[in-house]
Structure prediction request, 865 residues.
Amino acid sequence: MGCKASFLAVTAFTLVSAVDAQTSTAGISLQAPSSVMVGNPLAVAVNISGVNNLFAFQVGLMFPPATIAAESTSGGQFLPGYFVPGQIDGTNGVIAAVAGAEIGMVAGVSGNGTLCTIQFMPTAIGSATISIPISSVILLDSNLNEIPFTVTGSTVSVTANLCDIDNAGTVTVTDVQAVINEAFGSASPSNDLNGDGEVNVVDVQLDVDAALGLGCSAAA
Amino acid sequence: MGWSWCRFAGGRQISGSHEAAVASDFRRCCGYLRPIPAILLLTFVAGLPSLKGQSSTATVGQPDASHPLTVVSNLVGSNCGTPYTSSSTTVYTQPGFQAFTWGPHYPPTMVTTGNGAWNPATRTTTTSGGGETNTETDTLSAAGMLTVNVNDTYNLGNGETEETSASGALDLNTGNWSTTVIVNVQNGCSTGVITENATAQLPITLTPSAAPLTMTINGTPSNQFLDAPQGVTNTPYSLTATAAGGVPPYVWSASGLPAGLTLVQSGSSATIQGTPTTPSPVSGISVEGEFFENIPLPTPCTLTVTDHDGTPVTAPFLMVVGGLEVYPNLSPADKTQLGVVGTLELATGVAVISFYGGNPEVVATCAASQACLLFINGLISTLLQRGLTDFSNALDPLDTNYMQIYQPVIPAPATVPAEQGLSEADVQSLNQALQNQAQIQGLSEAVMVSLDRAAGAQQANSLLWSSAQLQAGKWYALQLSGYMAASPGLLSAASSALFSILPPAVLTASDLESLQSQIVQSGFPAGVTVANPSASQSLIGDLSLTSLSGNLSDFLSGGNGSSLLGISFNQATQSAAESYAQFGADRNNDLAVNCADLGVVKASFGTSSGQAGFNAMADVNLDGVVNVLDLALVSQRLTTGLQCH
Prediction:
């Protein structure tokens, strides 16, 4: 039983802000799955670590629009308060001015957590490097002084959709029928979507889900 | 109240009316019925609360096509055992009802045409005779509601009676009129009850009938009276105010008066009098420990007069008790000769330095006095060297309340050697720096005026004095700087101040015209203009001022060579500072700081000046970019725990 080739390729890269790194330097990084299939939603978390007294943040991202499409942004749990979703430029692959701030004369938050989450939709096979330009980041403490930081980007491999049996780009009833044929023995069982060693009704259901837009959640 | 009963009010049966028709029905049924009383409509005059600030009259019109009077009538009767019912609706769109008048002022006098005078508001009239007893109670409330209740019994003889009860209410504010009339007839074996409900919305016309209430203090209209003459401890003091217009009698009240002063009312006038016992508190601030100390802080006072209609006129003003002592290190001769005056104030918690233009005629004298020159040079040098870079260090004693607020956001202009004075570019740079400070401090607006020294001296003080009448509400920065191009031996003067004014909190051209008028009226030389940056340097000599301890008039009428002895324009309280910082976050100018202000920043977030969508109100720190710093500057001013989305 064969499978479509899927691979993991994660590349982390770190940049340091113009502010000299000090003991209180915070780290900003992206948390994303190493790979995702076309058509499956991709959530990328913008995390922060080692921060002290964070009152407000602003961050921007860059992404390859030919591979993934940005759909929305949402605030994280780490910094409660007011969230600005920013602007998504799907043509140039830029998400600008995503921000959040606490409300009131309160102390900032410290430690590690998620600042915000970006929802993407993979659209084509390839490698999707998501980065955070240093110039897009501002971290403010409760005295509204800037907090030094480093940033770490991420690369996500976008693989073919296993459920797209005919490689047509989308999962349709044709793909479902192909899996059915394999499950019933009328075709060679080459698409074991869940990787359990056989093509059966479970694989059929996975493809049906994919055809319905629920993503192909088959195991890689 | 002129409930126009036919029997004793002229006997009027409305021809062709619905009542007549119903009555006719009932006659056929019951054999007898007096005419049903007409539903009255009125034209009268009464004092209303609708025109605030003025006594007014209200004229209630007659029904017409646009204001129909609808009468719904129901008859339930019995003609010696034979049931009888009838109902109908009639709409009147023509005038023709009895009218009467109240006025001109209510309360206390209420006059009704043809019905005598009413006082107090409720009148009860009982009339009897000819077998009929009628009791009518009419009440006019202060809110403009006229209610009427009528009870009438008529002995028809032979045990036969007719009883009528009627009630109605007319809202003089809206013209809404409703009434119910019930007639109960016992006529032998015939009985009947007629119930009528009438509703209408009659036209109301409001007409001012008295001049607005006004107040003058010391002969000055209250809205121009900014500062009371200074009081001196243990010295008798008197300040008289007079009311006019409105509806007498007047009631006076005052607040904030310094200890020892009371308000005494006499008819249309009131006098603040007594002997001040306690000097005003002082700021206790100095620069480098030597320049400015013991500057009195004026006490905010209010004087209010209210007329009989309840319309108040309130005049806020400032009053200082006690003398001023500044420049303790200057000799009396230096003080007299000094043409440049500086004060360091605690304006809303922020240290503010004010300078007023010098006088070239005294420069020579001043130049001969090392103490005088050192004072001038040192003061301005302190401003430039420390005020724009680390101003908090110039405060003595240090106070964290002030240091935290003062955060320059652009580089200070280059230090100018004291002997050279400031260039115009320096002044502009100073203005820009101060404006940015005002913004980052959270001021709603910054009013920037750059003047030459001649006008600057006047305008600085005039505007600052003027600001005192504008009350709290929003905080503004006023900064004036003078460029002493013609006086290279004398350093440039600059002044700045923070003040609060009432919305619409913008100094308009008319404001400046008003200031100009004050200057002219105060006897200042012609040609001295407000907001005229090109005023002649030759006027500098005429601009030397006398003591600032008095009011604006005293200040403006000073002679040559007089010196200013300091003044404090603002009250320095922590609460004021907090308030001022708070309102700086009011980005939509709605006098509240809430989620909507965050929304203003959010709507332009990520934009830069010149870009589509950029909103200057969202750029809190005036750096040309709307970013997280602007967001934080607003969000910090919101109430902790507030949920904004």
Notes: Chain B has four domains: 18-208, 212-325, 339-584, 588-635. Residues 370-387 of chain B form the longest helix (18 residues). Chain B has twelve helices and 27 strands.
